[in-house]
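Take a careful look at the protein record below. Let me know whether the structure tokens fit the sequence:
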Amino acid sequence: MHQIVTPAEMAAIDAAAPEPVEELIDRAGAAVARAAIDLLTGTYGRRVVVLAGKGNNGNDGRAAARRLERRGVRCLILDAASPPPVLPPADLVVDAAYGTGFRGAFDAPALADPETPVLAVDIPSGISGTTGVASGRPWRAIRTVTFGALKPGLLLGDGPEHAGLVTVADIGLDCSGARAHLVEGSDVAGWIPARPRTTHKWRAATWVVAGSDGMTGAAHLATSAAQRAGAGYVRLSTPGSERDPFAPTEAVVVALPDRGWSDVVLRGLDRFGSLAVGPGMGSSTDVAAQIRRLVARASVPTVVDGDGLRALGAQARDHISARPKDAAPVVLTPHDGEFEALTGSAPADDRLEAVRAVALVTGAVVLLKGPTTLVADPNGNVWASDSGDARLATAGSGDVLTGVVAALLAQGVDPAHAAAAAAHLHGRAGALAWPRGVVASDLVDHLPHALAELPGG
């Protein structure tokens, strides 16, 4: 996993480094110079303009220019405080104006040729290192070299669109204390246990309680996703539904009464490794009360999504804390609207802090959906997944994610890791599908491919 540290955390890491700051600047400059040479595809006679600020970010750019000049590159260093309205012609522009601690707005000067590539130092100038929000008119870099660890602003908000390809340069900083990490396929492969030769369907069984009259699609998607993500047995129940002729063929459909159904589920949970509740269940007072009762009394790992989140609402902490003392954790999977139902307001621009706060208050693992999905546990640890793209923005996508989380929980994966792994696999399933026209059921179909591409898969 790649470490992620906030600007404040990085400032503390910098201050604690045993090496003098000049040594760290030289190492950073070397990393930037290597990236510049790679982008220039040559050195002698190439022209580079470096826009350098007065801080260490600017010093990193100046150190890179010195190294490039020794390789035959013609470098022009311009002061970021008073740049010309249009930069001189160049083969590459190095953005070393402002770093992660910048406050204010940055209006980048125009490029002589709009096609000139921009290489950003640590983070594109004008992008908040904490939130990724753009202030002013920053350049869109083709590549960013960041130091020691990723910064949240490279993953959130406007950051990904402005940073281009991000590489992390090791300059000797100790980032081992990072509490946030970017999930990779190798991490997911390590979290999902191998299936023993003697396994059977009940070793990874999940019960999906979802759907309502006219809203069975959400239940079917969650069920199918759980099956494709490794659940050996999936029971599907929709309160008030006697039969479900369009349910996935392999699902075991068990009827529930339209009232008082939570007790029926609670009595039958002993053989199940996980429970999923909420998608497509509607918002009636009785349904909400039954969801709250089920969440508060179930002992197995439980993932709550959709209408289940709205049922818990601002009292989520009370219902989760009422669970039996030996109960497994709850995973909440809100999008921004459902986050507001839980907290009373939409997530702030600092999404890392927002998801941490809800996990701490509720005592649950919280998966906050978004272009970069964030997972937090109650201890303040965060896992980020950027494996998906806009193809996930389709009706039913979240129901698929619910099923994947449930399946991984049923396989015994730690709840925080199950949520983070599910986010990664969900994103990869979308990325492996077609460029356009993807619907939620396509994500289900591509889950086996996402699992197969994992190291050792």
Notes: The mean pLDDT is 97.
